[in-house]
Write a structure and sequence with these properties.
- A hairpin with a 5-residue loop joins strand 6 and strand 7 (about 180-185).
- The relative contact order is 0.12.
- The chain is an alpha+beta fold and about 475 residues long.
- Helix content is about 45%, strand content about 15%.
- It has a domain at about 1-50 and about 65-235 and about 330-400.
């Protein structure tokens, strides 16, 4: 879809929509239009497609000619997103995929869609996951799960019920960025709106059998006054990034002066620099004749400038960025002479690891409701006690070495011997769910072979005693 900042034309009349629904659609459209410029700005910062803000002591021409970019805004998002790794749905009893959702999730490429939705949530403060019955005849999954970007979606929150009250998702635009297709989500119906070439809108209605809005938000740091959270690319991040870009430009300009030291010459003739001052600065041999009074000219060099203050400034700005986002300074391209120890690396990651654990718990609640809706749409059932206990499993957001994990597991197993027989121990050791499944399968296969050997060993003497003596020879 085409990005555009301007005035959109909200639908004034939609065929097949009643007055209450039209009011809700126009209200949602107005909220989306108000939020769009700021969401677009955050996307531009993450993609580094922003104009550098001018500085009073740097010529505008220099800012325009020097290309300065920074990946720090992207680091603010990706450093946390890569620690939110969804591994699947589980039951309190430890059963993996208790409601056989793997087939539907695989048909919807959920392993590809969810990481993008999480990244989008950290970029814009939230993203949305919609569920609806799919058109199987046209090749869609039985239940269609779609991740929606907040740049092209909007929802309103029901504070009393703690759910989405209604939502609007824009699915297509024209070449000028004007929406041409939208889906409006209500508790009792889903409306697919299409704009005709004449500019009028028409809606196709689909019943919603669950009687709840089939839109679930994934939020970063939701608060009482901001139920849809806030962006990782905050005002502080954008301001710090602007100052980092200006420091890069200053360093680039200063490097030219550093490469060509400033010289001075006193008492020289007017034609001493007939070839040009730059040529005189780079010549290996340089001769200056005496002046008209016969005095020898004085040639000297101004004290050479140093790049160290700019380097220190850049390091200071990186430290401020790390404080604002929790991203370790070492991930921002700041190299130290002495590599940190494993304990120091763990301490640096502690804040972002804690943030990831909190976020996984928050998003886990949203994904739990998504899983419940998929089961209810597929099976046509209500929320049972077993379905209400559906839970989510996430990979450990803390990056630890295998030797450290193994040592900790040995110490825990000595205190809790039964821990070594649990799947949690394998998760603690760093194995993925796919690897745990294979390991347990191999274990059951080996145990089955061992039991068979024991049975055969017990039966062998009886078989031998049944054999006649004359046959034994």
């Amino acid at each position: 879809m085409t990005a555009f900042v301007g005035v959109w034309n909200a639908p004034t009349f939609v065929a097949g929509v009643d007055e209450a629904q039209l009011d809700a659609i126009r209200g949602l459209f107005a909220v989306w239009q108000a939020k769009y410029p700021r969401n677009l700005l955050r996307s531009q910062y993450r993609d580094m497609r922003v104009r550098i803000k001018p500085s009073g002591n740097i010529p505008a021409e220099a800012i325009a000619r020097v290309e300065a970019v920074s990946e720090w805004p992207d680091k603010a998002v990706s450093a946390l997103a890569e620690r939110s790794v969804f591994e699947g749905f589980v039951s309190p009893g430890g059963m993996q995929d208790p409601f056989e959702l793997a087939g539907i999730l695989d048909a919807n490429r959920f392993d590809l869609e969810l990481p993008q939705a999480i990244t989008s949530a950290y970029t814009h403060s939230c993203s949305f996951i919609t569920t609806a019955l799919g058109d199987v005849a046209s090749g869609e999954p039985e239940v269609l799960i779609m991740a929606r970007d907040a740049l092209w979606s909007v929802a309103r929150w029901d504070t009393r019920r703690r759910v989405v009250r209604d939502a609007l998702t824009i699915t297509d635009t024209d070449d000028h960025g004007q929406p041409t297709a939208m889906d409006a989500w209500f508790p009792d119906v889903i409306l697919s709106l299409t704009r005709r070439p004449s500019g009028s809108w028409v809606a196709v209605s689909r019943p919603n059998t669950l009687n709840e809005v089939l839109v679930e938000p994934l939020m970063y740091d939701p608060q009482l006054g901001r139920p849809f959270g806030r962006s990782r690319i905050s005002r502080a991040v954008m301001n710090i990034t602007d100052r980092a870009l200006l420091t890069i430009i200053r360093s680039e300009l200063a490097s030219d002066f550093y490469a060509a030291p400033r010289m001075y010459a006193l008492g020289v003739a007017e034609d001493a620099f007939s070839r040009g001052k730059w040529q005189a600065a780079i010549d290996r041999w340089f001769a200056i004749s005496k002046d008209e009074d016969g005095d020898t000219p004085t040639v000297g060099q101004f004290p050479q400038m140093t790049m160290q203050p700019l380097t220190d400034m850049y390091r200071t700005i990186a430290t401020q960025f790390s404080g604002a986002t929790g991203v370790p300074v070492s991930n921002l391209g700041i190299v130290t002479d002495n590599p940190p120890s494993a304990e120091a690396l763990y301490a640096d990651d502690r804040r972002i690891v804690n943030t990831a654990r909190t976020q996984n718990r928050i998003m886990g609640g949203s994904l739990k409701r998504v899983g419940q809706r998929v089961v209810r749409l597929r099976d046509g059932r209500d929320v049972s006690d077993e379905l209400s206990r559906l839970d989510t499993s996430w990979a450990n957001p803390s990056f630890t070495s295998p030797s450290t994990s193994a040592d900790a597991l040995v110490k825990l197993s000595s205190v809790f011997p039964w821990l070594s027989e649990s799947e949690v121990a394998l998760e603690f050791a760093g194995f993925s769910h796919a690897e745990i499944t294979r390991l347990l399968s191999d274990k059951r296969r080996a145990q089955g072979g061992s039991v068979l050997n024991q049975v055969l060993a017990r039966q062998t003497p009886a078989v031998q005693s049944a054999v006649p003596d004359d046959v034994a020879g």
